[in-house]
Amino acid sequence: MKRDGRSYIMADESPGQYDLKLMFPVLILVTIGIIMVYSASSVLAFKKFGTDFYFLKKQAIFAMAGFIALVFGRHFPYRHLRPLAYPFLIIAIIMLVAIFIPGIGYSAGGSARWLRFGGFTVQPSEFARLAMIVYLAYSLDKKNGELKNFYVGFLPHIFVLGILTALIAMQPDFGSVVILGAITWLMLFVAGVRLLHLIPSLLLLVPIAYIYMISAEYRARRLMSFWNPWQYSANEGYQIIHSLMAFGTGGIWGTGIGQSYQKLHYLPEPHTDFIFSVIGEEVGLLGVTIILSLYVIILWRGVIIAKNAEDLFGTFLATGITSAIAIQVCTNMGVALGLLPTKGLTLPFLSYGGTSLLVNMASIGILMNIGTRSRQQPYAYRRRRRV
Q: What is the DSSP letter of 81?
């Protein structure tokens, strides 16, 4: 096919076909996640709710809802997200504000991060992340050609980021702030915003982050425990120490599914933030390597889809979705392995959590839709687009 004097090879225009190289790794991870959520939470669930299937049932429901979201995202034309960019942002801001309204917001562990609807809770920061990606993809595409202008390509996007991060930081949820900032910085970089604007902003964030970390005693202790967790083994270093013990116990082959010792009320949040530690203990290095390989396949497909997207909006949207999953995976695993300070972030497709699973699977559906309408374009044209 020819358009504008250039030849294009259609990658796939069949509306019913799915990208199996992307979908299968996701479904395998979700299946593993259901199994591991049950294994990691059964003792805790029996103690709190009188049944060891409590979290298993809810995660299975989340997985089915997530699969529906994936199918919907796959068949919903991604270009129709363009006019929804600002409505999504407004909804995200309203949800983040609603957290602080008594009777609507729900607090746990000293943080107000959820909205309660009946028997389910929703984490607005997860939706805000996707809303920010859609907004950035729309805005960067619309302003293409003027992105090197500080007042067009940089300042408006940082202003929107500042509104969202301020609301999230008030919860407080420093991990989500870092993730959202990293996604924004990466998307602006890929779009071609001047490094002269991006690098100073990154350097400016260092003292701001430091002041924020030491402004609360528990955050300062958490930062200190990162350098030497054994010095704070009774409090802030407790999670990291038991996470490392889980990996050490697992060795190469693991102790076997359901045989984790650290999940027996030693490792806090074994089915959410530290499910990777339980996986490392029960299936060992071999199982961890398989899971890492599945993530690599997902990210590889995301990069290919972003590179071959039909338009800039699709390129930026695929870049944002892929980078969001990659950053969250690296952060969660880095925390579990003691390579990063402790943050309350889930592991995509594996950790217990309805909002996270629903948003991530919907994002994969959008990514598949972009890939379905992608075209293999000449290298010179791709280079001109600076992808």
A: G
Rounded Cα–Cα distance for residues 337 and 32 (Å): 20
Tell me the β-bridge partners of 112.
107
The span from the CA of 99 to the CA of 129, in Å, is 16
Structure tokens at 317: 């949207």
| Interatomic CA distance for residues 181 and 62, integer angstroms | 27
Note every long-range contact of 55-58, with CB atoms under 8 Å and residues 24 or more positions apart, other chains counting.
55/271, 55/352, 58/352, 58/354
Indicate the SS3 state at residue 238: helix
pLDDT in tens, 94-111: 999 988 887 777 766 556
Determine the Cα–Cα distance for residues 386 and 380; give it in Å rounded to an integer.
10
Q: What is the maximal distance between C-alpha atoms in the chain?
A: 68
What is the residue type of 313? F
At residue 63, φ and ψ (nearest 5 deg) are -65, -40
**How many CA atoms are closer than 13 Å to the CA of 247, on its beta-carbon side?**
18
pLDDT tens profile 207-225: 777 776 666 666 677 777 7
How far is CA 307 from each of CA 85, 107, 133, 312, 386, rounded to the nearest angstrom?
A: 22, 41, 17, 10, 10
Which two three-digit tokens encode residue 44? 């805790």
